Every structure is written in C-alpha cells, then in structure tokens.
TrEMBL record:
InterPro entries: FAD/NAD-bd_sf, GMC_OxRdtase, GMC_OxRdtase_N. Its cofactor is FAD. This is Glucose-methanol-choline oxidoreductase N-terminal domain-containing protein. PROSITE patterns: GMC_OXRED_2 (PS00624). Belongs to the GMC oxidoreductase family. Keywords: FAD, Flavoprotein. One of its GO terms (molecular function) is oxidoreductase activity, acting on CH-OH group of donors. Pfam families: GMC_oxred_N. Residues 11-25 form the Glucose-methanol-choline oxidoreductase N-terminal domain.
C-alpha cells in the first residue's frame, strides 16, 4: 500500500483502465465485470481526450519554406532582431479533430 499520494499517468486510455482494474471507477461498471469495488468514482473512463499525432509526408513546390530557408542568415537575423519570420513558428502548422465513432 502507498503511504502517500500516487500519481498515475498512462495516457487517456490506459490510466482509467489501470484504475478500473484496481477497483477504482464507476461501481456499476466494475461490478458488471466482476471487479471488487474499492472506490466508487463515476468519472473514471468518461470524457476521454488524448493528444494524437499523425505524420503527413508530402512534396513541396520550389519556393516553399524549407529547412534551408529557415536556417538562412536572413531568417536568423529576422528572428533575433525583429522576432518575426519563419523561426517564430512552431513545427506544427495545423491540427484537426476527427470523430471516429
């Protein structure tokens, strides 16, 4: 048994799974699966959200922003002196949420 608090961080899917297999979760759901209820905690396993990542590979036309341009002297000076330009962007230019069910 733990003597102090325990932090469980195993993703949006596996954290509730571990909790429920340990007897922590919605009482009715645990009993339905024959798991001894230690703590009735209805929110476990609900409203799951996870940060997914999808790699997309594509060919860019000439003149597109490339690593060479990003690391050019012009881009470096633009960033350091004016805090503008290519280097002020993150590596992620867009996101999408897709409903799977």
């Amino acid at each position: 048994k733990a003597r102090k608090e325990v932090i469980l961080s195993a993703s949006a899917v596996h954290t509730p799974k571990i909790l429920m297999l340990s007897g922590i979760g919605p009482k009715e759901h645990l009993e339905e699966h024959g798991i001894e209820v230690k703590v009735d905690l209805p929110g476990v396993g609900s409203n799951l959200q996870d940060h997914t990542f999808l790699h997309l590979y594509f060919n860019a036309k000439n003149g597109s922003i490339t690593q060479g341009e990003a690391l050019s002297v012009r881009s470096l000076l633009n960033y350091y002196l004016r805090k503008r330009g290519t280097l002020t962007r993150t590596g992620l230019e867009g996101t999408a949420s897709v409903r799977t069910r």
